[in-house]
Amino acid sequence: MKHITFYLDFISPYAYLAFEQLPQALQGLSYSVSYKPVLFAGMLKHHGQLGPAEIAPKRDWTYRHVLWLAHSLDIPMQMPASHPFNPLALLRLAVASSANGLPNRYVCETLLRYVWRGGADAADAGRLQTVAQQLNPQRAVNGDDVKAQLKAHTDEAIELGVFGVPTFEVDGKLFWGFDALPMLRACLSDDPWFDGPWNSVASVAQGIRR
Fold first, then answer.
1. What are the distances in angstroms from CA 103 to CA 36, 92, 110, 143, 146?
2. Which CATH superfamily hosts domain 2-193?
């Protein structure tokens, strides 16, 4: 049985779609999953990038695209009242939900649906308090250990080469984005393609640097 590490931030609509679609995409395969909350903004800062929602034309396209994907896949989805928002409270709540900082699928489902269903404000203090009470975390959400663990998850992901969410790691291979689910399935199915082209891209020279 192969193991998937699923790096996610609740701010990402693609992480929500990938989470909802993962069981169907990998149906019939034997695998296990660990969910690791990470701060997407930390990755953007490390790589010197803006997020999709920080570039006006890309922002509009991203929202249209994810809503279309949800519609086409029959996944309930509504944009939150404002986006982007500060996801730290949700990320820390997820980390605090277990002793090892790895939330289970129920916790991730609850927090992703909290953001991406209903169209409410994801950063609303009253709503945050309600979802925290529902999940009843094992540790103090704003405790130093929880903050450190979230940072450790993010640092680990960056060290591995993760640059965005969702990202799936299997046997040292990284699969980025909702549209990588078919590729992830092929990897879990031991497709021989991964013995050749996967590694060959490293030999492509970078022609221009900006």
1. 7, 10, 11, 16, 12
2. Glutaredoxin (3.40.30.10)
Q: What is the value of pTM for the model shown?
A: 0.97
CA dihedral 100, 37, 131, 96 (to 10 degrees): 20
Tokens 């590490």 correspond to 5
Residue 98, phi then psi, degrees to nearest 5 = -145, 160
pLDDT of 209 above 90: no
One-letter amino acid of 139: R
Q: What is the pLDDT of residues 84-117, one digit of tens each?
A: 999 999 999 999 999 999 999 999 999 999 999 9
Confidence of residue 202 (pLDDT cuts 50, 70, 90): confident
